[in-house]
Fold this sequence. Notes:
There is one protein chain. The protein is of the alpha+beta class. It folds into three domains: about 1-110, Multidrug-efflux Transporter Regulator, Chain: A, Domain 2; about 115-235, Roll (DNA Polymerase III, Chain A, domain 2), CATH 3.10.150; about 245-345, DNA Polymerase III, subunit A, domain 2 (DNA Polymerase III, Chain A, domain 2), CATH 3.10.150. The protein is about 35% helix and about 30% strand. The strands form four sheets. Strands 8-5-6-7-20-19-18-12-16 form a nine-stranded antiparallel β-sheet. A hairpin with a 5-residue loop joins strand 10 (about 215-220) and strand 11 (about 225).
Amino acid sequence: MPKYELMPIGAFAQRSGLTSSALRFYADSGLLPPAEGDPVSGYRYYSTDQVARASVLRRLRELAMPLVAVEAVLGSGADEASRLIDEHVAKIVGDAAAVQQKAAVIKAALGTGPGLPVAAVMGPVLADAVEQVLTAAAHEPGMPAVGGLRIEVGHESVTLTATDRYRLSTRTLVPAEPPSQTWAGTVNGDELRAAVAAIRRSPLVRLGAVSNGIWVRMADREDRHCRLLPGDYPDHRLMLASLGEVSTRATVSKDLLLRALEEHPGERIGLHVADDGVSVVSADDGHPDIPLPAAVAGRAVQIWFELTTLYPAVSTAIGPDVMLDLRGHDQPVTIRSADRGDLTTLAMPIKSDHST
């Protein structure tokens, strides 16, 4: 290639975003050898065709990708390269989460002592409850508390609550041992989710409170620390206490209702509840209603939901049947197990021209 079509290392460094010293390193490592070199002066020259490879190399290194992995990506086709990048990112994210947890444990241990014993709960039961209730949590700018799990320990029960202001899920657990004292706090939901697998494999989990969070203590497993979230938690007790009288109650198969919701084509879903059962209704007149057998008591009502609100509320219910307590088309619906009432979810309806 004629010299006038080549770039000296300084010009190529400006085009590629790599420093001259980095280019020399990558040339010596074989990742980006120059197009030509002057054996007398030692000058290195690069072609315009090498700019794209150099730019990709730079971006991969910005991801903290090691040279061996960079070489594999650069030598692969698009699909394999994407897989290798995803694999690297997943490792980085996992390592960061592990470091974050270890840092939280260290900070919690600095001057806080072992923590005040609060409650003891069966591990598998607690793990299920955390997964069920946290479906109602959300990350909202300016409201960190709604991304967490509210834990309230009473003299005879441990209550878990989460809400995104459109849904509210709450479950009451019977502790394995009488709680030593009352306690309440809003725990980081992401950190608690990360501990669920270990909690599920522990027959008994003990919760201990410290000033900035809770310790989750498990026999034969590393203790986990979950931080408390700042800010006031929404007054969910007031909302529960202010619910109106139930005007309609329907008991329907959980599996059949979920299947109907999955087959529904739209983002908004209507439930028409009448003496002959429950029908999943579409806002699109061209889509047929999906009738479901149900035991219904009370007056007929039609109520509309966002799919992202209703589906998780139904899917986390315990048991084969769900009970829907309705108070009218513009009031929250209570969704709970037909045979176990320790998990309760409120789902907020939406306005619709189709509602009656």
